[in-house]
Amino acid sequence: MKPTLVVLAAGMGSRYGGLKQLDQVGPSGETIIDYSIYDAIRAGFGKVVFIIRRDIETAFKEAVGSRYAGKIKVEYAFQQLDALPEGFCVPEGREKPWGTGHAVLMCKDVVKEPFAVINSDDFYGRHGFKLLADYLSSSHDGDKLAFSMCGFIMRNTLSDNGTVSRGVCEGDADGNLKEVVEHLKIERNGNAAKSHMQDGSVVEFSGDEVVSLNMWGFTPSLFDYMDEMFADFLKEHGQEMKSEFFIPSVVDTLIKKGKADVKVMTSEDNWFGITYREDKPMVVASIKELVAKGHYPGKLF
Q1: What letter does residue 160 receive in the DSSP assignment?
Q2: From 3.90.550.10, 3.90.1310.10, 3.40.190.10, 3.40.50.720, which CATH number describes the 4-10+18-292 domain?
Q3: Fewer Cβ atoms within 10 A, N terminus or C terminus of the chain?
Q4: Domain boundaries along the sequence of the chain
Q5: Strands (DSSP E) along the chain, which ranges?
Q6: What residues have CB less than 8 Å from 288, skipping those under 6 apart?
Q7: What pTM was estimated for this model as a whole?
Q8: In Å, how far are 106, 142, 230 from 99, measured between CA atoms?
Q9: CB atoms inside a 10 Å sphere around CB 171
Q10: What tens digit of pLDDT does each residue of 145-191 get?
Q11: Residue 10: pLDDT above 90?
């Protein structure tokens, strides 16, 4: 069974100032998503599921989804603010989505095979997709859930134009993820980095740390746990205006409860992405260089 690729594309783009999922960065008008789908197809993925919002459905399908007709099976799931378990409601005045964990939960009815999860606005490179496709296509039977992640070196994932959110990972001696801690405001600090915490403190990093960019590998068994975990999250944080249910927090909880092992793999490719509008020229130039080197054709689809 070929694995499925789940693409998180419901973000509001508040820091970027628009629907960056639809921004053209390739020489023939390609989006970053196009490169991810191209890499996923040649890595062996058999289906892609886009998680989007209803209000961008038409524009997204016309500008992005239609490109893959005849190339790979495409399905959609929708992340809506009011898609909550019975007994919960959206607090008055809240507009912010419930986070990446909630987004993944929205695709449980259309994903029945091992699957990878990626962001729509990150350029991961071919190697990461190949690592995850191979792992997800292999049997990993055991007492625990067998998950995986593809990590990147922190200093290679920072923006020169502002702070970024990253899950900082710690592995054990067997190459499994031991802990992942979400940092919401990491910025470059020379060749290193620093994180500004909500309590006003600052955490210093060397820049060599492995971080999560939401490039995960899961089995459908994840959904059996996420329903209850999201309900628990809402009980504690459901009345807050900006609280979010993050994938790394879900993974971290399952690891600490002894429910899951997460194999950590590190991509050899350089990452780049668009967090701020000022990031776009760098992304365009980087893709142009990759095309010139023959890593990608001048026109993907």
Answers
A1: T
A2: 3.90.550.10
A3: N
A4: 4-10+18-292
A5: 4-8, 47-52, 73-78, 115-119, 122-123, 145-153, 164-171, 177-189, 192-196, 202-205, 210-218, 260-266, 272-273
A6: 27
A7: 0.89
A8: 11, 30, 11
A9: 18
A10: 999 999 999 988 888 888 988 889 888 988 999 988 889 899 999 99
A11: no
